[in-house]
Amino acid sequence: EYLAQALRNARLYAAERERARAAEELARLRAAEAAEAAAFEAVGAALGGSLDPPALYALILAQVTRVLPCDHACVAMYDGEGVTFEATWGTPRIAPGTSFPRRALWLPEGRRAPVYVPDALALPGWFAVPPLIGAFHDRSLIAVPLRIDGRAVGSFDVSSRTPHFYTPHHLRLAARFAEHVAQALRNARLYAAERERAAAAEERAAARQEQAEEAEVLSRIGAALGESLDPERLYALILEQAGRVLPGDFAVVALYVDGWATVVAALGDPSPPAGTRLFPAGTDRVWLPDPALPLGYLPDSAAERRWRDLPPWLGADRCRSVISVPLRVDGRVLGHVSFASRVPHAYGERHLRLAGLCAERASQAVRNARLFAAEQARARAAEELVRARDDFVAAVGHELRTPLTAIVGFGELLEARWEATGDAQRRATVRKIVASAHRQRRLVDDLLLLARMDGHAMAVRRARSAIAPAIRQAAEEVRASYPGQQIDLRGPGGLVALADPARLVQVVANLLDNAAKYSPEGSPVAVAWRAEGAWAAIRVRDRGPGIPDAHRGLLFARFGRVPGSRIRAGHVGTGLGLYLSRQLARAMGGDLDLEASGSGGSTFTLRLPLAPDTPPG
Ligand code: ADP
């Protein structure tokens, strides 16, 4: 009875223990299932997020190792002849990105389904590369090929140091995780492709925007060029518009003015004011673009001494990248347009092209400005000519009337008082009439000569002409118009020039006439002549007020008269004398010039070729 009871108890106990174990096993399985479900859920959530592939692989490995016992897990990608570990877990630690030659490892490359290797030691070539040899004793191995669009791109592996460790359940788990890894990979590829497409689209849009901006900038500059002739405004506008398409900190237009590269417009920092002289033209101490090239580019001015020494950038590395474009007008370089940035290597092909286009517009502005200035000068000259002609007509009228008045006056006087006048006085009056008539004839001759010169019909003789007698004759003529005028004559008697004797007298008389006419009464005049090399040099010197430097250019111009000149009472000028005299001197193979002039008086020098056999003076 007792024994039977003990047996029943033992059976009950055993059954109870069995039930408890079963319940425990069930609970363990449920817990494992829950953990697995949680792990897959976490992986799924991560996949739905926008994590990049390496982070996703690491996250998947972290979840795998929670539910799939192992000593090592990894995601490895095939990459040409190598294989790269994208993420690893456990020992040995392999940094993500480490690559090994593909043939040195055992890989499930050709397989489609997951592979279970119960003991890796049996595999040929199992991790034959350092540092894996010896350090890595994994024996049981599950390797799941990762395939995308039917192509093996890598594998997902878990391994344990214990041989024959894994069950079919583990194999299924690994396969499911591998599916997620492949999914992550696919997502990443799609994402990368999408990003590439978006970047390309963005690039296209940016290029279109740039093109539109360029077109607008160039059209604005073009419109301004068409509307304005004010060069300063145009340069400033060109720099401003260029700044919209050319990155940089500084831009300048510099033109060569009086031998200096001079700022005419600047933008940014530094901003030298217009008129700042930068460097003398033609210096080789300054970096300038090669004149043979359309433009110059200095990618880093720190390496170029000639740029660093250039004021106002002296010693500063404020402008590191520099584009400089010569401003060419009709083949001549008249200046430069430069664009600069504080960043070295700031400019690319497009910027160089744009700088060239903007500089071309600036050249156009320079050309327009010059045309405009030339046009203005022409208009001024035309106005000047009209004014000079008006003055001339008035002066000629006066000049013709003065001797005529004398002739008529003295003639009438003679007629009225013939009997009452003595012989000597009559003769003196007739002389005055004759002198006035000569004077008038000379003026008429001048006018005729001018008319002939205008018609290019002037011809002069070139014969042997003795200088001394010609000068004496001229002095006589002038003395007749300026009674009491002192004229000193000094020079060799034998000097002979090749000239037209009448014209020679005319030129010297004109110089003497001016010397007397523009000096105060009683002021002496001197003529000196001598041989100088192959020339006869005749100098007419007065002690008058001199001719201001600023007006020298007027002297030999047609109708040119120095404003404010004081003329002796009773005389007038036409502004023709020196013009005609120089033309005559040149026609005779010589020249006429103002040699010196100052407060002590003026010296005019007439040069004529010496006759071949003249003895040295
Ligand atoms: P004009 O008939 O007016 O004298 P010229 O051609 O002979 O014409 O001279 C041009 C101008 O040069 C004169 O109007 C005068 O202002 C200036 N000039 C010429 N000679 C002298 C001189 N010796 N001293 C000062 N001024 C002079």
Keyword list:
rod-shaped, single chain, binds adenosine-5'-diphosphate, 617 residues, 11 helices, alpha+beta, 6-stranded antiparallel β-sheet, 19 strands
Explain what you see.
The N and C termini lie far apart (180 Å). The protein has helices at 2-48, 53-67, 168-227, 231-245, 305-308, 349-416, 423-454, 467-481, 501-517, 552-555, 577-587, and strands at residues 72-79, 82-90, 99-101, 115-117, 140-148, 151-160, 250-257, 260-268, 277-280, 296-298, 321-329, 332-341, 463-466, 487-490, 496-499, 525-532, 535-542, 591-598, 601-609. Helix 1 (2-48) packs antiparallel against helix 2. The strands form four sheets. It has a six-stranded antiparallel β-sheet. The protein has 617 residues and is of the alpha+beta class. Adenosine-5'-diphosphate is lined by residues 514-515, 518, 542, 544, 547, 555, 560-562, 565, 573-579, 602.
Question: Which helices and strands, and how do they pair?
Answer:
Blueprint lengths: L1 H47 L4 H15 L4 E8 L2 E9 L8 E3 L13 E3 L22 E9 L2 E10 L7 H60 L3 H15 L4 E8 L2 E9 L8 E4 L15 E3 L6 H4 L12 E9 L2 E10 L7 H68 L6 H32 L8 E4 H15 L5 E4 L5 E4 L1 H17 L7 E8 L2 E8 L9 H4 L21 H11 L3 E8 L2 E9 L8
Parallel strand pairs: 14-16
Antiparallel strand pairs: 1-2, 1-6, 2-3, 4-5, 5-6, 7-8, 7-12, 8-9, 10-11, 11-12, 13-15, 16-17, 17-19, 18-19
Helix pairs in contact: 1-2, 1-3, 2-3, 3-4, 3-6, 4-6, 6-7, 8-9, 9-11
This protein binds adenosine-5'-diphosphate.
